[in-house]
Amino acid sequence: MNALFELSAPWWHFVLRAAVVYVLVMVLVRASGKRAAGQFTPFDLILLILIGNAVQNGINGGDNSLTGALIMATTLIALNYMVAFLTSRSARMERVVEGVPVVLARNGKLFDAVLRRELVSRDDFKEALRLNGLHDVADVELALLETNGNISVVPREQSGAGRPSPRRGGR
Asked: Which residues have C-beta within 8 Å of that of residue 13, sequence separation ≥ 6?
């Protein structure tokens, strides 16, 4: 029964391992591109599961005690809270951790090189247009790949179509 709680290394080893792996995985995920959780493909989900499995031993160092698990889980939650706290109070930290929105289209022109660089397929872009009630990139004023992986679309103003023209003079 005692073996359930007995650590195989000093407690601070678990804190250090969890912190290093947390930062490493955050950097790797950040470098892999933007994709919202709702947009995960089956391959993204498989990758996420395999990354969790791959870093497991790096965090626990072979320790299977409940005490070690509690220390590691607490450390990971504290690190996540600290990152959220810092990003909510520092624009610079937010840019480093979450990135910045990327312009995919402007004034009816789609930037194919940006789509390729950001790993956004034309089909995903067209889906974002449809979700915003648009059918053609010519109808787009601005399309952004947001930091959460979603695509925001601002439609172009329609000139004259069914709208009264602005009045001139003192009326």
From this structure: 61
The pLDDT mean for the chain works out to 87
Q: Point out which residues pair with 154 in neighbouring strands.
A: 142
d(CA 11, CA 86): 26
Give CA angle at 141 (108, 93), nearest 5°: 120
Reading the block at residue 106, the tokens are: 């402007």
DSSP at 167 = P
Which tens digit of pLDDT belongs to each residue from 22-67?
Answer: 999 988 888 877 766 656 778 888 888 888 898 998 999 889 999 9
Alpha helix locations (H) across 99-142? 112-117, 122-131
Tokens of 151: 């695509």
Tell me the per-residue pLDDT of 59-102, one tens digit each, with 9 for 90 and over. Answer: 998 899 999 999 999 999 999 999 999 999 999 999 999 899 99
Beta-bridge partners for 102: 145
All domains in the chain, ordered by first residue: 2-98 (no CATH), 102-155 (3.30.240.20)
Distance (Å, whole) CA 50 – CA 54:
6
Cα–Cα dist 106/15, whole Å: 46
